Amino acid sequence: MKKFLLIICICSVSLANAQVDSLQLKKIENESRFKVAGRVLKNNLFSVPGDFSEMGKTFSKDWKRTAMYAGGILGLIAVDKYTTDFLHNHIEPAIDYSLPKTKVFNSNFDWFKGNDLYISASIASLYAGSFAFNYEKGQMAATNAVKSLLYSYVISHVALKTLFARNRPYREGSDQDPSEWTDNNWDFGNYHPIYFNSKPGGTGMPSFHATAFFSVAKVMQMEFDNYWIPYGFISIVFMSDFPSHQHWVSDMVVGGIIGTIIGRSVVLSSRKQKAKENKGLSQHSKKKFKLRKQLIPQVSENMVGLHFVGTF
Question: What is the DSSP code string of 149-178?
């Protein structure tokens, strides 16, 4: 009587996938700092469209909330004369301190000197330290902060200042030119060519510094899940030279709101881009290790059977 022999080779797909995930995790942990830095920069580049998409969603997903904010801003503008006078005459004299002034590269570029240097130097130090220790989250936070600063410049300084063209508040007893400064809180529409550098006339709303500082603070708060350190730090820097900002109160509030939206949108977009890349990598791994089953009949003088072959 012929002997029947059934030969079955079974490969566990779940075990294979678990091994793939483990190997992939180990590979990521062992990546060189240059690969990690490259991945971070790639994320920042590819997430640019998503940055603006997230900004748009902030306004469009809840029109009632957007209308409430718009109404609140109009209310602040309406009382700007009183709140700004109070700021100039009571709050600013009470906040009387300054930070040491310095500059790097002997440069006159704003972010390489003065108070702005405290923000840019902190971001640069965070990135340098994170690169040295191959710390991906730190690199992501630093590069997102830089991106937020760039967006703040384009959106607040270049676009919105030109669009609103609001004159800055006049200070009593100063020698400011009346054609560039005003005591009228509704003095909008003083249109001018796009100013790429800081100038007084028609550049009141929004405050670029408030936009930039709050965008960086929001990025750091979301990346490191901490409110006190980033907002405390930017408050100390921002208030150390209050009189130099020369803005209506509403200018600074609007700048802070825009900066918060920018920082939040940048972080959310980068997270979505990272999740998308991880999903694509996972799908690629699954496809690469896909099990293919094949039954092959086998007949010989001593046996009749089937071979079950799994290839992956």
Answer: HHHHIIIIIIIIHHHH-PPEEPPTT----T
Work out the pLDDT band at 292, boundaries 50, 70, 90: low
Percent of the chain surpassing pLDDT 90:
61
Amino acid letter at 96?
D
pLDDT score for 31 = 82
170 backbone dihedrals φ, ψ, rounded to 5°? -80, 140
Provide the pLDDT confidence category of residue 102 given band limits of 50, 70 and 90: confident
Determine the Cα–Cα distance for residues 27 and 162; give it in Å rounded to an integer: 49
What is the model's pTM?
Answer: 0.81
Helices (H) and strands (E) in the chain, counts: 12, 6
State the average pLDDT over residues 291-296. 56
Residue corresponding to tokens 């800055």: 168
Q: For residue 2, which phi and psi values (nearest 5 degrees)?
A: -75, 145
Of 171, 241, 235, 173, give the one whose Cα is nearest residue 200.
Answer: 171
Which residues have C-beta within 8 Å of that of residue 279, sequence separation ≥ 6?
none
Q: Is the distance from CB of 276 to CB of 267 less than 8 angstroms?
A: no
The pLDDT value recorded for residue 311 is: 55
DSSP bridge partners of 294 = 309
Q: Say whether pLDDT at 20 is over 90.
A: no
Place of tokens 């009571």: 90
CA distance 230 to 148: 14
Residues in the chain: 312
Burial of 123 (0-12, 13-18, 19+ CB in 10 A): buried
Distance between CA atoms of residues 73 and 254, nearest Å: 7
Phi-psi region of 246 (alpha: psi -120 to 50; beta: other; left: phi over 0): left
